Amino acid sequence: MNPNDTPRSRGKLLPESGVSDSAASPEVFLTRRELRAQREALPALSPATEQFLAPKPEPVVVPTVRSRGRLPASPSKPVGRFPRKRRHPVKIAIAVLAIPAIFLTAALPAYAFTPRAAGDLTSATHSSGNKVVQGLTVAAAATAVTVSRDGFAATTKEQLAAQALATKKALAAQQAATARAAAAAFAVYGVRAEGDDYPWYNMPTESQGGGLSPLSYYYRECVDFVAWRLNRDAGSTGSSWRWTWNSLTPGGGNASAWASAWSNHGWTTSKTPVVGAVAWFNYNHVAYVQSIGGDGSVVLEEYNWMGSHTYHKRTVSPSDVALFLYPPA
């Protein structure tokens, strides 16, 4: 025994199997070395004995949590893997058939169906190899569509100027017609106006069924009044007339023909007015030059101005007159 060992450091003798503690008297204390040697001298336990003697783990209990809702809480289920659900064979068969059908439907081309009567429509189907191309259906009564295109031509400056001049003349003629219509509405028939010496002022006009005057022009027209003034200035106021249609304007009785008649006779024409001359307008009208003002203005006397078939007097600028026909020789 180690002299340093004290009774506190000694251990008790390990009891042997089948020996009670009461029999082990007197009490003997062993040292640590003796205890270790005694343990090593014990026979080794078998694996089954070690498993039996091993401490067993206590089971873990999961507390049940009560639901705060109205429904009762479901009983606790054991923690672990859920059982695998088995699929019904019918559902599996439907899924196997449906999936290829969806792909086939998406791959099919779109076809149009049009009901048709026999003999009304004609169809054509073209084949190329193993592929079939859809045909176009056309009605037998369909007509061909023709495309028409308007032509285009450039306009020169001369053509533009001519068009502008024509438009200006048409506008002037329209304004003159409007003025004539307005004057005719205020015309007074059957009354001799002051300064009017025309002897047939109250005779019916052509539109009223009247005929020709002794000068062979229609009554109360501009040409008949001017022919009367030319005869008066020549001293002829009776049946032996100096100037009539036959000797004055044999080419035609309209005022538009008077300028060419003067040219054919070789009589004088000018842009300068003189008293007793004929004021010729290019819109089929003639008037008598009664006087010339100090400012160069021209006082005209006329009949049927603006379609009135009455006596009329006005003052114009010489530039407003296309040509002055001097009294015939």
UniProtKB/TrEMBL annotation:
Organism: Cryobacterium algoricola
Keyword Transmembrane (UniProt): yes
Superkingdom in the source lineage: Bacteria
Transmembrane segments: 92-113
Segments of this protein annotated with the region Disordered: 1-26
Descriptive protein name: CHAP domain-containing protein
Sequence ranges assigned to domain Peptidase C51 in this UniProt record: 197-326
Keywords: Membrane, Transmembrane, Transmembrane helix
Coiled coil (residue ranges): none
Protein biosynthesis keyword on record: no
Signal sequence coordinates: none
InterPro entries: CHAP_dom, Papain-like_cys_pep_sf, PcsB-like
